[in-house]
Write a structure and sequence with these properties.
The chain is an alpha/beta fold. The chain contains 7 helices and 8 strands; from the N terminus they run ββααβαβαββαβααβ.
Length: 226
């Protein structure tokens, strides 16, 4: 049985110029396949979404997506929920706004695989749980930032780096290594949040001058160690 996904508004400016969808992770559980708004993988994305919203509250609409089920079901994956979310946003904003995807863990994988949608301009994958072959996706014209903690023992940094190298065949990709950070993004968490917010604002709004790590990423530097 598949439950219904949900979009939770974080920021809804009246004259939005771009929209960001924030995607959570979370492994599946046989005893409870439903996504709870209070599960840790969902809660961890709240400060990420709020930081993105603060980047430009008058022009950047931000939503958190609650998936229909936990984990990655072969018959219905989080990618399907991302497609649903973008279709829903079309009804509210029209099809002309650029879309950014920001995902953690399995949400990072969903962001990469869903970014083939023509509406998607950029994506940020935070500690993405991916296979190297996920880098075979054609993301021509997209800007991609992958941020991975060096001490992540749940999602492989090596797999993420391999996927990034694959994506470089078609997209503008930068891979940032966060020294000492683990999967939950608690240690050095503000680095993950800041990079996601700055990258979304720079790539989706267009008229901003990026600084620091994001400036290096958009200039083509990769990998970057922080």
């Amino acid at each position: 049985m598949t439950n219904s996904p949900r979009l939770i508004a974080v920021s809804e400016p009246r004259h939005a110029e771009a929209v960001v969808v924030v995607l959570h992770g979370g492994a599946s559980r046989r005893d409870n396949p439903m996504v709870s708004p209070t599960q840790l993988s969902v809660l961890r994305m709240i400060p990420v979404a709020k930081r993105i919203a603060r980047a430009d509250p008058r022009r950047l609409a931000v939503y958190r997506l609650l998936n229909s089920t936990r984990g990655w079901d072969a018959s219905h994956t989080p990618v399907d929920d991302v497609h649903w979310a973008i279709d829903q946003l079309h009804e509210g904003f029209g099809s002309g706004l650029p879309v950014g995807l920001v995902g953690h863990s399995l949400g990072g994988r969903a962001a990469i695989l869903a970014a083939r949608r023509p509406e998607v301009s950029s994506l940020v994958a935070l500690n993405p749980w991916v296979y190297p072959a996920d880098g075979a996706v054609d993301l021509t014209g997209r800007r991609v930032l992958i941020v991975h903690g060096t001490d992540d023992r749940i999602a492989s940094p090596a797999n993420a780096a391999a996927a990034a190298r694959g994506l470089e065949q078609t997209a503008d990709v930068s891979f940032v290594r966060v020294a000492g950070a683990k999967h939950a993004m608690l240690r050095r968490g503000r680095e993950f949040e800041r990079l996601a917010a700055d990258f979304c604002a720079a790539t989706l709004l267009g008229d901003r001058t990026p600084r620091g790590v994001v400036a290096k990423a958009l200039a083509g530097e990769s990998p970057i160690d922080i």
